[in-house]
Write the structure tokens for this entry.
Amino acid sequence: MHPTYLRYELLRNVRNWRFILFSLAYPVVLYFIVTAPQRHHTFDGVAFPLYFMAGMAAVGTMIAVISTGARISVDRSAGWTRQLRLTPLSAAEHLGVKVACGFAMALVVIVLVSLSGTALGVSLSAGAWLTMIGLMLVGLIPITVLGILLGHLLTPDSLAPAVGGTIMLFAVLGGAYGFLVASSGVMFDVIKALPSYWLVQAGKTAVMGGSWPAEAWIVIVAWTAMLVPLTVLVYKRDTSRV
């Protein structure tokens, strides 16, 4: 991985006020607004501040990784991708930096939201914190790949509504906003097939101990296995025209 290019991409994200507003400020502010009046309540057997903390972390991290990958579309439109191909930077390094940048920003989101949760009474052991963070990062893998896929499929004009709609759909169906559209039946089976559902469930897993159920790992692996070959195919087709 090229350290200079990684540093450039990280600075590029930090200087993007829209990114700061939606991936960092939005989940933190919403967390305090919603959780403060309900700090003594429970949801799905978990203290509401913890459950909603995991939900807001899921929203913020999804914005971080999808937006970082989807920014490829803007690079393509501006001719930046073409310029990079004239440098010694390989395609693997280019995509690797995008992934690393997305995960770095996701970690910042998790830290900020976790500090907010601590301020409202969330108390976990060091092992539980590490479990929650680790599971969330694993759950973000297919979503990161999805961001790269969207970046190579979409134009800058269609990027914002597609990314925003994808994140909102994943967040609402995954229960990130503190409620589930369904708790049984076929719809609930669909919800549990989404990686965003397991991102939110990372908080519940951490507080109850143990690890994700096998179903969670199957969902993450299945989504990743489905999206990676598709992304590689679209990437090769896209770059062959650059």
Summary: The chain has a mean pLDDT of 84. The longest strand covers residues 42-43. Residues 64 and 106 are 6 Å apart (CA to CA).
